[in-house]
Amino acid sequence: MNRTTRTIVVVGIAIAVAALASFGVYRAVQQMPVREVEVRSLYQVVAIHDMDNGTLITPNDVKLVPWPASSPVPNGFTQAEKVVNRGLIAAVVANEPLTESKLAPVEAGAGLPPSITEGMRALSIRVNEVVGVAGFVVPGTHVDVLVTINTGTDMITRVVVSDVQVLTAGTRMDQAKARDGQPIPTSVVTLLVLPNDAERITLAASQGSLMLTLRNPMDRKPTESNGVRTRALFGDIPPPPVVKSVEGRRVAVPPPPPPPPPPPPKVYTVETFRAAKRAEEVVR
Length: 284
Prior knowledge:
- By secondary structure, the chain is of the alpha+beta class.
- It is 19% helix and 29% strand.
- The strands form 4 sheets. Strands 3, 4, 5, 6, 7 and 8 form a 6-stranded antiparallel beta sheet that branches.
- The chain is flat and about 135 Å long.
- The N and C termini lie far apart (122 Å).
- The model is unreliable at 172-178 (pLDDT under 50).
């Protein structure tokens, strides 16, 4: 038997032994009993579908799903009866666990009142597409309220209240569009304000026209501004012309021309000699 034949025989025997060993391991694994490890779990109440702020929860709006017992939801619910007939104070999405912070107190009802924070007030103002920042003032956004007032001799625009949260905007059908980032062409916006801020906005609305400016949700600093007047916007306004009566007719006398500019200062030239060099210096 030559060398090549011996190599082929050795390789064939090795392959056969490896195949038999693999088959034996496979059969041994198949005959091992299956052990099932039980994972402890509890049931968590979640929403079946998307629900807006102010929705009254019914049995058809929630369901129980298995939840790992090692990671329970803080302040969650394990019984659907504890969330039924309670109002939502924050919008939820499908399969989102319900927590105590998202629900109104028991017997508080549904709608807008339960979503008003204690010590705050809900104030509705009339807006249009321009005032409402082209429809992008949607529930959850923060705005500044500006007012423009005519004082009789001048007009002024100033921030009345800053960093105000929008509670509602438009109808429920319009609010459903806001979840997709679409604008809401609404005519009424409800703001969450302090009682004294509600008084300021109401007085400003009776004295002038309101405007809303949209804020970045991460920018919570109060707006500090002294306002702007027409004189500061366009510079000093010239006084009205003086009207005099000439031969029974009223003639407007133009204002006097502005005074001429002062004459330029006199310039003197001094000629100096340093060694063999001549130079001239200007003296004013």
